[in-house]
Amino acid sequence: MKKHILPAIKLTLVMILFFTVIYPSAVWGIAQFAPNSGKGEIIEHNGNKHYVNIGQSFTEDKYFWSRPSAVGYNAAGSGGSNKGPSNEEYLAEVKTRIDTFLIHNPGIDKAEIPVDLVTASGSGLDPNFSVQAAKVQVKRIAKIRGIDEAKLNQLIDDQTEKPLWGMFGPEKINVLKLNIALDALK
Q1: Cα–Cα distance between 41 and 55 in angstroms, integer?
Q2: Distance (Å) of CA 96 to CA 102, 123, 127
Q3: Across the chain, which distance is largest between two alpha carbons, in Å?
Q4: Which of 70, 149, 151, 156 has CA atoms 20 to 30 A from the CA of 140?
Q5: Is there a contact between 75 and 125 (Cβ–Cβ < 8 Å)?
Q6: CA-to-CA separations, 165 to 33, 132, 156, 168, in angstroms, rounded
Q7: How far is 120 from 20, CA to CA, in rounded Å?
């Protein structure tokens, strides 16, 4: 018995030391080389600070709407809705989002609405959406702001982030950066 307990206690102490001191210190040290020392990218706009890597709520018609959040954009606790695609309550929620989008975007067909405008991400805090999610909102924003659609489409192209090394992941747009650039348009 002594033959097994002593090595188990030693291993436990080594693992406690590794996972509570060494590993966190290594991650913290590497993060110091990241922008803003690993605290995330912060943008100051209109006197407010916003984290670029956390989803923000945009629901005004003069802005590009952001992806819905299952957690109300509360960064203290990310998470999905945990409701499956056949759950009646979830389907009703998605239908309500679709109906709301169609009311605010007349002339758009239901089939044109990208899925990322009516469903929340797994974390509930996704700061990005697809290029199609931006382009489907152009007519509404152009009409409200009196901006040419071509100028808005160019803004979308300018704000589009390409996949990592040109092959990992889809093209995406950070909604916060896009709306800040939209406010800067004259």
Answers
A1: 12
A2: 10, 21, 22
A3: 81
A4: 70
A5: yes
A6: 20, 21, 20, 7
A7: 34
**What is the pTM assigned to this prediction?**
0.78
Tokens 């002594």, located at residue: 2
Which are the contacts of 71, defined by CB distance < 8 A and separation ≥ 6?
77, 78, 79, 124, 125
Give the whole-number percent of the chain exceeding pLDDT 70.
99
Tokens of 116: 């990322």
Kindly provide the b/e burial profile for residues 57-72, where b requires at least 16 CB atoms within 10 angstroms of the residue's own CB: ebeeeebbbbbbbbbe
Tell me what pLDDT residue 129 has. 93
**Type of residue at 61:** D
